[in-house]
Amino acid sequence: MAPQDERAKELLLEAKRLVGQLKAFEALAPAQEALGIFRELNDQVGIAQALRPMLIAQLARGEVKPDEALTKVKEEAAKVKRTARDGRRAEAAMQVTLAAVQLAKAEPVKAVLAAADAEAYFQREEDYPALADVLLEVVAPAHLQRGDGQKAMDAANLVLDVAQKVKDPEVEARAWGLVAAGRFAASAEDATEAARKALDLFRKLGSRVGEAQMLIELARGQLARQDALAALASAREALKVAREAGSWAQAGKASEAIVEAQLQAGQPQAAHEEAEEQLKWISEVTPDHSSKKGLASAMSAVVVATAVFKGGDAGLEVVKSYAGRPERHHGMFNIVHRY
Prior knowledge:
The chain has 18 helices and no strands. The chain is an all-alpha fold. The longest helix is centred in the C-terminal third of the chain and has 22 residues, at about 290-310. It is globular.
């Protein structure tokens, strides 16, 4: 393998790893560099593969809109030469990228349809890493977005089989996470067991981000089952892990789960105090793309908690008071209007 080609593949792996660890906003630089090298090498497959984390990163950073990303994918797809030696594989990789963008647009049905041919191709060619990729990144999440827990579980269970073939523990951990999410969505009795399996695997990998995400998923599942106390414990642990990992977006999501658990437990005053405390804390974190997402979640929690505790539009007024202080909210005034 030529040094340049090897460098591009390393960068691509790094970009995909960051996306898989919920750090898409950090994946832009390696994805763009990989894409540039693949273009120089005229590597159709590499271009299609690098385009995906690059667009996902740009979407996460708010640098492109979903429709703009979709147009970009279609432009690149039109350049693929199917008659070339790697043409069919490049086409399949581009289909996965298209599906990923459609999923980002909250169009899960279109995403599943766009990924279907690629999924069948990778299965037929026994390209297991690529098959795991499309199932983990598009198919299972799309079914979850549709609320179809059973189909999400089917896709995740297939990934578990693939994980045995590629011998990738991170793929296995992520697959178990999707199995758990699917089981929770389908109200399956063994959902908690699957979540704890995924949690254990992420801990063995030393993935603090994966651990925090699974604790958040566990809390959400427990909330769906009206187990407020268990959900509160899971969410608090998720918040602790997310803070230690510096994953502010996850810290915000954990804060939302904490507040929801307290409200479900009939503790509106405690939920209100918790929400304000977490908003104050995260508003003082050094601004980056992750902390901005965390701040949005914390603001959302304040809106809900204050509205329940004080009624009316009081929650929105609290958030507006934060939005009025630029040094405290990282220029996030527009977030208020989303809620």
